[in-house]
Each structure stands twice: as structure tokens, then as C-alpha cells.
Amino acid sequence: MLVSATEMLQKAKAGHYAVGQFNINNLEWTKAILLTAQECNSPVILGVSEGAGKYMTGYKTVVGMVNGMLEELGITVPVALHLDHGSYEGCMKCVEAGFSSIMFDGSHYPIEENVEKTKELVKIAHEHNMSIEAEVGSIGGEEDGVIGRGECADPQECKMVAELGIDFLAAGIGNIHGKYPDNWEGLSFETLDAIQKLTGDMPLVLHGGTGIPEDMIKKAIELGVAKINVNTECQLSFAAATRKYVEAGKDLEGKGFDPRKLLKPGTDAIMETVKEKMELFGSVGKA
């Protein structure tokens, strides 16, 4: 059964580890992440961007697939299904479809409008026993057309949004989506520390977890980050393993073209990446 992410993230923050949010794109992705979470005895958050939700034909399909897998695969670790970078309309659709968690990304609105819309969605989410994440300060890079420059959030604005009753907060601390450029200046721990001091026990979220050096990840967890989002890294490892399979001509041997065989190396590569991340985040054995 899907659970909200609130309790798993409060436990993570108190225990100084982080729960990974791994974005899903199809059946293989979902299965790989769930099986790895079960094997590692780790809580997990399945992230769905609006673009991926559309690609998978809609949120109801996603909910049906995930619920079916939890049952058929005998998954016993806590699993949350979370809308990533949701618009107001997207959040409402996920409430209806049966997600267990939503993120409202109002970071591109003036702070007053972000506060107003977040407030409304907090009420709706909590009426449905769902957790809700909000964002302050744009996350750099591109995520389904949402582009930011790796800005740092204003700690006072973070405090204002944290006090609206949200369950966890994504704050820009110089992180970006996608591959990090060579001239990236790193995370601003000064900003993170200031936000942590003003938001107290609120679990903080680090977006754009792909390519951040391990020591920075560990320091971010020490400073209150309890949820780390990973997407690009799984895509890159899936693509590399699939390329290797095709370039080695494996798809031309016997029934190597069968999608179940063709997609297996990539799926195994996702499992490996997820396991590495769970070990790095410290969530192994914490289910």
C-alpha cells in the first residue's frame, strides 16, 4: 500500500540519513526501483514528473501500475508515489488519481502567489492523507521545461513557506537538474545552514542529485536534507547499458530483439545505480 512520505522523511531527518526519490518513466523503471528498495530494505519515493505522467498515459495508469506491482512483487518497504514539480492543476489531478504525495512547484510565481496556492494545496493534500512538498528559489537546469539558474533561496521566504503546514521543503541552494556544467560553483552550505536554522525539524529536499560529489551529499544530509532526488543518473546508466547491448550485436543473436531481453541490461543498470545511491544516502536497512 502506498504511504505518504511524511513519516519516512521525519525519521530520516532525525536519523541523519536521506530517502531517495527516484523518478520513474515506465514499467521497467518502476520495477527496478521497487525491487532494489525491497532488496536494500530501504524506504523509497517514486517521483513522477508531469511529462512522464503524460508519457505513461496519465496519473491513473501510473497509480494502477504501482499499486499492482506492490502487491504482485510482495513489496513490504514504505513506498510513496510523488508528483515531481507539479503545477496547481497537476497536483489536483494526482489527488484525484490516488497518489500519496505531491510537490507543488510555485517557485516561478511571486512569493505571495506561491504562498497562497501552497496554502490551498496543503489543506487539500492533508484532507486526503497525502504529504506535500513546496519549493522556494528556483532549482537550476531544466526539468520538463521548468528552467532555473541554480539560484539560492531566501531563508526568510523558506521560513514563511515552511510555516504553511507543508511536510517537506525544496530550497534552491545552487543545485541544478541534469548534468552539472564544468563551471558549477557547488552547493551553498551557508544558505542551507541558514534555512535549516529557520525551519527547525522540517525535512529539506535536495533536487538535482545527479553529479553532486559524495562529500557534498553527505554534508547536505548532516545539515538537514532528508530527501534527495535522482533522475538523470538512472537515465544515463540505462542508456549506456542499452547502447552496449545493441553495439555488441546482442539484439541480433537469437531472440535478442525481444523487448524483455533488449531492456534487461538497462533495467539491471538502474538497479545498480539505485542501490549505490541508497548506500550513499544511508537509507539501507531503514525500512
Automatic annotation (TrEMBL):
Keyword Lyase: yes
Residues binding Zn(2+) 1: H85, H177, H207
GO biological process, any: fructose 1,6-bisphosphate metabolic process
Record key words, sorted: Lyase, Metal-binding, Zinc
Keyword check for Zinc: yes
UniProt GO molecular function: fructose-bisphosphate aldolase activity; zinc ion binding
This protein's name: Class II fructose-1,6-bisphosphate aldolase
Source lineage: Bacteria, Bacillati, Bacillota, Clostridia, Lachnospirales
Name of the gene this protein is made from: fba
